[in-house]
Design brief:
Elements lengths: L8 E7 L9 E5 L2 E5 L3 H12 L11 E9 L29 H12 L10 E10 L4 E8 L12 H7 L11
Parallel strand pairs: 4-5
Antiparallel strand pairs: 1-6, 2-3, 4-6
């Protein structure tokens, strides 16, 4: 009997407005410096939502990670009065305001450490997008990179989409 290695992949949807990683802060008290992470409570809440989809085994090799952050549109993008449900003609199509995309990605990678992977240094390829959406959420797609796989940036979304139902949060494992 041949020992076949199990490859892990999955897709998560976390509802709620995406949160960015905040810079670590320092306080000084009685001559001592104290370092703290202001994103700690946000990460704790995010981890609680992800924990129910924790795979049986953590990934301990190269990982490809694709994230899409669906950001809410501000009220200023919409018209007023009886047309308040319609976007203004000059409303931007792409999300080019804060939070920065790298801080959004870093927050997710740090929060998923210890749940999906031991260390975020295992992430070999990263694809990140910010888009406007009526329903704010974070979509995370990940898969373990096979040794012979050449095109690491090719999304598996099409393959995984076939496995997905219209459910809100799904994790699939091979």
């Amino acid at each position: 009997m041949q020992n076949k290695k199990e490859y892990i992949d999955g897709y998560l949807v976390i509802d709620g407005k995406p949160v960015a990683q905040k810079r670590h802060r320092y306080t000084f008290k009685k001559g001592f410096a104290r370092n703290y992470d202001p994103s700690f409570t946000d990460k704790k809440k995010f981890k609680a939502k992800v924990l129910e989809f924790k795979p049986n085994k953590m990934i301990k090799s190269s990982i490809v990670l694709c994230m899409t952050f669906h950001m809410p549109r501000p009220k200023s993008h919409y018209r007023t009065g009886k047309y308040s449900h319609l976007l203004k003609d000059n409303a931007p199509k792409t999300h080019i305001v804060k939070p920065d995309i790298d801080n959004l990605a870093k927050f997710v990678m740090d929060a998923l450490q210890g749940i999906l992977w031991d260390d975020d240094s295992y992430i070999n390829a990263l694809e990140v997008k910010k888009v406007y959406s009526k329903k704010p959420r974070t979509e995370i797609e990940y898969w373990q990179l096979k040794k012979k796989e050449k095109n690491v940036t090719k999304r598996k979304s099409i393959k995984l989409a076939k496995n997905r139902k219209n459910s809100n949060t799904i994790r699939g494992s091979k």
